[in-house]
Amino acid sequence: MEKASWDTDILAPLISASMNINNILPDSILQANADSSMKIVFNNDLYKIDIDTLFNIEDTTIQNSYALPSPLPLPAGYPIPFPSTTATTYALPGIELKKVIIKSGFVSFKVKSKIQEETVYTYGIPCATDPFGMVFSRTFTVPGRVGTTPGVYNLLVDLSGYTIDLTGPSGTQINTIYTSLTANIGATPVTVTPADSLIIGNTFFDIIPYYAKGYFGNNTYNVGPSTSNFTLFDRIVDGTLQLEDVDFNFKIENPIGMDARLYVSNISSINTRTGTTINLTNSMIGSTININRAAESGGIVYPTFANFPLNTTNSNIKPMIENLPNKFGYTMQIITNPLGNISGSNDFIYSDRLMKASLDMEIPLSLVANNLTLQDTLALNISQTGGTQNIHEGTITLFANNGFPFDAQLQLYLLNESNVVTDSIFGYANTIVEAPINSALRVIGKKLTKIAIPISESKMNLLYETKKVVLKVKFNTSAQPQYIKIYSEYSIDVKLVGDFNYTIQLQ
After folding, report:
1. Which of 384, 382, 455 is nearest to 425 (CA)?
2. Cross-strand partners of 149
3. Which of 46, 55, 218, 257 would give a disulfide with 95, using CB separation of 3.0 to 4.6 Å?
4. Distance between CA 123 and CA 342 in Å, rounded?
């Protein structure tokens, strides 16, 4: 006997939400003025100078072979003749380092012994002290050879946190690290032969300083043409935006104990979507910018700042931002220590405190939007469990109670597994009507819009298969061409209700 079934209509609430300006723009960049009107406060770093820009400590290896006096019987404890210290000077053109604190890095010490008996070593780095002030030193025993196979010992030490004095054994050198080594025959006397020797290798590698002190040289660095990403308008894919005002500041922050001179030859607003680039016009472009060195006291850094306001009276910063850039371009030149070693080799730098050029911006949300289109890709997961696969067709109704002074048009595009659009949800007549405003251009109430969206059985099946959708929202502000302010209390209440024809089957 066939199972009984019948069709019925069900009314199901799908979405209910209230959204304000924080749902359109991130909370972290929004601030409210005293009158509750909103503004965007945003920082965008253009370029940073770090330790790697100024110098790089390369890996270094020293390997030596030592022959013992032979043929002689050597008593237990006999001292093996080695140089008391071995120095390595790093090649750092124009850079004169006196001290570094190591953020990360290693030293590898390897002994290959062709002596028949054990030998005992004390390996030290007299110029290296740990965070507790203890000088680096290790004592270890190297096994004797067995037959023709040498005895081998490997020592690997993490130098993170160590302070290295780079002034050498005399205290007057630069860029120099030195080690010490003593060794003696172990507890058993041994007779050595001309074939007996010691091969010793010493490697410093992957050295990255946390702190450095010395003289960082008088060098010129040409930067760019290059770009930095600008994410504020990432979701905007079409339309235009006019802003009543913008207030920018080109800021240079210098936490490095080093003077510098900066020439900015170009800053540009780049919209790769439209292919439009607008170059900044301001007296700063092409001028000499002197950057004073930072000071430090007790591990506290006191950076210096150079600020250059960019506004509608002294620059074209407003059309640059109305270009809706997704990148900023820049070309500049930086000269370090333009007056030479005036600090007496007391320049300093911390790896986590970088000299940077940035744009600080404050943009009041007082605007005119023309077909300004925001786009985002969202995950969609409509399960076919629980009987939803029995839905034949129906209508999804959007109720939007709009408290914003702009109308909006919505569209949802369905994507397949290759992210290709397969269909859309909304029809063309889907405008959410703007809220009413008073003579001061402020919203005085909300406006309800109802949009019905027919969903066929074939479209329902397509929804089951869809994992991603593209949401596009197109905005147009009220009272154009007048600027409209956005206030913190503005919101829109959205409810999505499904009215479906549904088949029920008896088990």
Report:
1. 455
2. 146
3. 55
4. 38
pLDDT tier at 488 (50, 70, 90 boundaries)?
confident
Comparing 5-26+368-505 with 56-215, is the CATH topology the same?
yes
The yes-or-no verdict on residue 391 having pLDDT over 70 is no
> Which amino acid does the sequence have at 393?
E
The set of residues, in sequence order, having a beta carbon less than 8 Å from that of 323 and lying 6+ positions away, is: 269, 271, 274, 276, 278
Dump pLDDT digits (tens) for 146-192: 888 888 999 899 999 999 999 988 888 999 988 888 888 888 888 87
- How many other CB atoms sit within 10 Å of the CB of residue 500? 19
| Nearest-angstrom CA–CA distance, 385 and 422 | 23
Domain ranges of the chain: 5-26+368-505, 38-52+218-364, 56-215
Torsional class of 419: left (φ above 0), alpha (ψ -120 to 50), beta (otherwise): left
Alpha carbon distance 185, 442 (integer Å): 92
Take residue 86 and report the two structure tokens written for it. 């071995």
Looking at the structure, give the CATH architecture of the domain made up of residues 56-215.
Answer: Sandwich (2.60)
pLDDT digit string (tens) for 367-386?
A: 888 888 777 776 665 555 44
Cα–Cα distances in angstroms (integers) from residue 311 to residues 30, 137, 277, 485, in the given order: 20, 60, 19, 19
Please check whether residue 70 is in contact with residue 194, taking contact to mean a CB–CB distance below 8 angstroms.
Answer: yes
User: Residue 150 is which amino acid?
Assistant: P
CATH class (in words) of the domain with range 5-26+368-505: mainly beta
Apex CA 303: angle with CA 299 and CA 307, to 5°? 170
Q: What's the residue count for the chain?
A: 507
Structure tokens at 251: 């800021």
Backbone angles phi, psi at 332, to 5 degrees: -155, 170
